[in-house]
Design brief:
Blueprint lengths: L10 H12 L2 H13 L3 H29 L3 H8 L9 H32 L7 H13 L1 H19 L3 H28 L4 H9 L8 H14 L6 H6 L8 H30 L9 H11 L4 H34 L4 H21 L14 H28 L2 H8 L10 H23 L1 H12 L2
Helix pairs in contact: 1-8, 1-12, 1-14, 2-10, 2-12, 3-4, 3-9, 3-10, 3-12, 3-16, 3-17, 3-18, 5-7, 5-14, 5-15, 5-16, 6-13, 7-14, 7-15, 8-12, 8-14, 9-12, 10-16, 10-18, 12-13, 13-14, 14-15, 15-16, 16-18
Bound molecules: 4-fluoro-L-phenylalanine.
Length: 460
């Protein structure tokens, strides 16, 4: 007889693990630099709109696909689709994206380890913004250290994922997320007392509508998907372990609400500081690693705050990487009949190979460009701005049009035991709003044409 599948022990464990997946570098590292590059207030406004109008319904679609099939992503589509149809092919895109994200995400997560150690050792104490900018530059281009941390991070991730669901994920998510929030709140208050606070708040909250361009919309869409862990089937995989009584719609709204709260609080820390110290918001991926250490170095007890912050950020990253690893592990175990140990090893080996290329993108492999981008940038851009939204369209259309209507309803209402006031709007979004909005953004941005153009201009 086959072993019963694992389940999350408690309802709070479910929310905590999904929130743990959502909250991570996406909120604290990616959101501020994306918002900074895409005009602040206008970006935030569209971002929030996408999170609730498209994100929440697609979370619900992933949840209901996962929980009604109790299977890995490929098995889920095979169980739910009609005989002979090909919906299950999308699961390969999800698995591929999860491995690509794991690869580049581990590089940045590795940076949090470097910054934790340096904070403890006092290497970042009393430094100026220029010093910190140079420090980041040297550290990431001296490829060996960045490479080493990427591998160390992936090995730590491996130690957790091989233990399985209950032991690893649930226990850790329950402790770290609230702790990280406390530190963020302390530094939010700290930033709000800085001289540049008013300008920072204006930048983040007052939308300049002339800044809304197709590029900003695509950036906000990609960020919403990335931050909510959508369109990779992480949430399908997690929901396959949910018990019958988990309220799917309410959980989806809580996850989206908390995730957005973390991103906004991160913005409230970063933007007042940028305007106070005269740093450009458009600096890109290095932004947070230059600004935050400076904020800490200006605070009494800064070394301890910095060490605690980067360590918690590292933990937040690892609750995200275990969730993305779970996609391929459950696939390898259930479809390829591997043991969990072997599946975790395979996941780690793939990520180490591609993660190393991503780590080297800042140094030795900076000139290796595909579509005009380094491997790191390519993985970051194509997963968030192309593959995740494409999967999102497919999940929405599948749940909205092709799944058994009764099954969708019984999943979202827990067999009519819950009154879900937003039921109709969720189904409406899955059928029309989410697919059409994502599609129009793609067309508007000519994303595919841009990539082809870049490819050919590079190879001439
Ligand atoms: N949502 C995570 C973050 O914001 O850091 C990143 C992520 C996790 C993306 C899991 C995709 C995923 F499957």
């Amino acid at each position: 007889m086959s072993k019963p599948r694992a389940q999350f022990a408690t309802r709070i464990g479910v929310i905590a693990a999904s929130v743990g997946s959502a909250i991570g570098l996406g909120n604290i590292w990616r959101f501020p630099y994306e918002a900074g590059q895409h005009g602040g207030g206008a970006f935030l406004l569209i971002y929030i709109l996408f999170v609730f109008a498209i994100g929440v319904p697609i979370i619900c679609s992933e949840f209901l696909i996962g929980r009604s099939s109790h299977s890995n992503v490929l098995g889920a589509f095979q169980k739910l689709e009609q005989k002979g149809s090909k919906w299950h092919l999308i699961s390969y895109v999800g698995i591929l994206s999860s491995l690509m994200i794991l690869s580049f995400y581990s590089v940045v997560a590795g940076w949090t380890l470097e910054y934790t150690i340096q904070s403890v050792a006092g290497g970042l104490k009393d430094s100026s913004p220029d010093y910190l900018a140079n420090y980041f530059q040297e550290f990431t281009t001296q490829s060996n250290r960045s490479l080493m941390w990427t591998i160390v991070f992936l090995l730590l991730n491996y130690l957790i994922i091989r233990k399985g669901l209950k032991n690893g994920i649930e226990r850790m998510s329950n402790i770290m997320t609230p702790l990280l929030f406390v530190i963020l709140l302390v530094f939010c208050v700290n930033s709000l007392m800085m001289p540049g606070a008013a300008d920072g708040l204006k930048f983040l909250f007052v939308p300049d509508f002339s800044k809304i361009t197709p590029k900003v919309m695509l950036g906000a869409l990609g960020q919403a998907f990335f931050s909510l862990s959508l369109g990779v089937s992480t949430l399908i995989t997690y929901a396959s372990y949910f018990k019958k009584d988990v309220p799917l719609v309410r959980s989806a709204s809580i996850i989206a609400g908390l995730d957005t709260l973390f991103a906004i609080v991160a913005g409230l820390i970063i933007f007042p500081a940028l305007f106070t110290y005269g740093i450009e918001p458009t600096e890109g991926p290095k932004l947070v690693f230059e600004v935050l250490p400076y904020i800490f170095s200006q605070t009494p007890g800064g070394q301890i705050w910095a060490a605690a912050f980067f360590f918690l950020l590292f933990l937040a990253s690892i609750t995200s990487t275990i969730s993305m690893s779970e996609i391929s592990i459950s696939f390898f175990c259930e479809e390829w009949k591997m043991t969990r140990e072997k599946a975790s090893m395979l996941n780690t080996v793939i990520a180490i190979v591609f993660g190393s290329l991503c780590a080297l993108s800042f140094g030795a492999a900076a000139d290796w460009k595909i579509f005009g981008m380094t491997v790191f940038d390519l993985f970051n851009f194509t997963t968030a701005n192309l593959l995740m939204p494409v999967c999102g369209i497919v999940f929405a259309i599948f749940a909205g049009w092709f799944m058994d209507k009764k099954l969708v309803r019984s999943q979202l209402t827990n067999d009519e035991t819950l009154k879900v006031r937003t039921y109709k709007s969720i189904v409406f979004s899955l059928r029309y709003i989410a697919p059409l909005a994502i599609l129009s953004i793609f067309l508007y941005q000519h994303i595919l044409l841009d990539l082809v153009f870049l490819f050919f201009s590079q190879n001439q």
